[in-house]
Design goal:
5 helices, globular
């Protein structure tokens, strides 16, 4: 799904539950992209994480300030702390 589609879904129903559902979809999409691309090295892994982070930020921009642009990183830190620490060393204060 594209960032604009996630934004349309959220803006049509701006609830915490909907945002959690979208975050879960982002996590599932990340796993699917890694598998689809057959990622086997750190560079490929980081490229997918950055792509998804950029997508989350585009989604957040379309939500009128109601979605934290750092949300993907926050979700990744909660669900996959080792992965997030590798991708985004704690320099941004999250």
């Amino acid at each position: 799904m594209k960032a604009k589609d996630y934004a349309a879904s959220f803006n049509g129903n701006p609830t915490d539950k909907n945002l959690v559902d979208i975050a879960v979809e982002f996590d599932q999409e990340t796993a699917a992209l890694l598998k689809k691309r057959g990622v086997e090295n750190n560079d490929g892994f980081l490229a997918v994480l950055r792509e998804m982070d950029d997508k989350w930020q585009a989604f957040a921009r379309r939500c009128g300030g109601n979605v934290n642009p750092e949300g993907y990183r926050i979700v990744m830190r909660q669900l996959h702390p080792e992965t997030a620490a590798f991708a985004w060393p704690r320099t941004s204060g999250l």
